[in-house]
Amino acid sequence: MRNFHLAGRSTVHAENAMVATSHPLAVLAAIEVLRSGGTAVDAAVAASALLAVVEPQSTGIGGDCFALVQPKGEGKIVAYNGSGRAPKAAEASWYLERNLHAIPLTSAHAVSIPGAVDAWATILRDHGKLGLDSLLQPAIKAAEQGYVVAPRIAFDWKNQFEKLKNGTNTERYLLPHGRPALAGDVIRQPELGQTLRAIAKDGRDAFYTGAVAADMVETLRGIGGLHTLEDFAAHTTETTTPIGTLYKGHDVWQCPPNGPGITMLVMLNILSRFDLTKFPALSVERFHLEAEAARIAYMMREQHIGDPAFANVDVVRILTNEFADQYGDKIRMDRLLDLPDVKPPMNPSTVYITVVDRDRNVCSFINSIAHSFGSAIVSNKTGILLQNRGAGFRIEPGHPNCIAPGKRPLHTIIPGLLTRAGRAEMPFGVMGGQYQPVGQVHVLTNILDYGCDVQEAIDMPRGLHYEGVYQLEDGVPADVVEGLKKLGHKTTSVVPPLGGGQAIWIDWDKGTLTGGSDPRKDGCALGY
Questions:
Q1: What is the 3-state secondary structure (H, E, C) of 192-231?
Q2: Is-contact 77 233, C-beta < 8 A?
Q3: 350, 354, 382, 514: the active-site residue
Q4: pLDDT tens-digit map of 117-132
Q5: Residue 21 catalytic?
Q6: pTM score > 0.85 for this model?
Q7: CA 112, CA 270: separation in Å to the nearest integer?
Q8: Following CA atoms 205, 211, 214, 216 in sequence, which dihedral angle do they give, to the nearest 10 degrees?
Q9: How many CA within 13 A on the CB side of residue 58?
Q10: DSSP 276
Q11: pLDDT tens digits, one per residue of 64-103
């Protein structure tokens, strides 16, 4: 088995355009769109659609999407929230009356309305030159003619074998040989290909109305779901303004709640009170400070963040220096803060795509079906694997993230964008469930504090303080692990790598692009 912690890649350089994501086929599809005159958004949608076929454990048309887009790399940044909502019948009281105090991860109740397809159409309407009819062709070809399973995807497939054996329609659609797919296997999904053809022909309505929607509703209601055709037909994408903070002279931008990007911004606000450059990048002090900032920010998120259409989320207050000082001033270098262990309802999987085109249009784009292989529910006839993002709700009346009719859950997927003086410098993202805010902070501080290039920043060993345990990759030096233990951290070594990231650095003076892509995944950066 390949060691996904190994680093050593060089950066990728180009003048015209560049893309980076987690699968080579998706990178190639995006580059072909760019070379044919498509925009960054066109390329991102083509790549995302193809990933929805070839990386089924992480993403799909049954999932959600968020994006940040900056026209010409210096225009107004637009945030797109393509997260789905709970069914209109999803009252908290309904679950409590049935003694459900958390949403089971593989139940119909975990399936929120998928938002990705509508988000793709909305973003293309605003910033694309091409339509779904052409951009879905690589995905259709992969689904109908087959694709070769990549090593990291086979690794995840094997890990989820028991889940897929016990899912709804998953044995038929995702275990065609009665076993997990192996690296080098050829997988075909003709039903999914037909669904993609329908979307290519008739646009988002082919997904949210008509036969495809009816099949999803029939599948979900058949296993106890509350979903209706009206729930699907009513879905819309929110176009909004990003939120941000200042770090080391750069502006860092995220999608607003119900997206969780505010978690990463709070971490930066806390870390800005310390001079990380006093400590080596792989040091006890650096990892300790990162963990403490994460513990504070995640606690904030779980207490205060939900869908702002349903809950009062005071973003302005949370991003103030005073809020960061409230806990940041209490951080000590010789021990842990006494904080409650945060236990979010879920820890999902994701794909991330970053694209810069020849006109310097910038797209930071993320798509997910939540947990690995989502809900393990595949629609009866359409081959659509449905997300379990709805399991991210709490069933706690009064909590900002309590489930409610038409409400969006607190999310985990966050596309990032770094700018300076209003100009894009780096669209970037780090996928990996609950790791994403920490991952983005780790990569960004590797660059801005430690002078790493984008590939070095992505390669560097990682850690995640989660549910009271500091999960550390094997690349973290033994003396750092021991030092963290002496401070009171409970540590463990993680076998699957933490997340996977991509980034593109824009050098406006030289007119060049520099890309990096995570060796923890199968993908790459590519430009021309």
A1: HHHHHHHHHHHCCHHHHCHHHHHHHHHHHHHCCCCCCHHH
A2: no
A3: 350
A4: 999 999 999 999 999 9
A5: no
A6: yes
A7: 33
A8: -80
A9: 29
A10: G
A11: 999 999 999 998 999 999 999 999 999 999 999 999 999 9
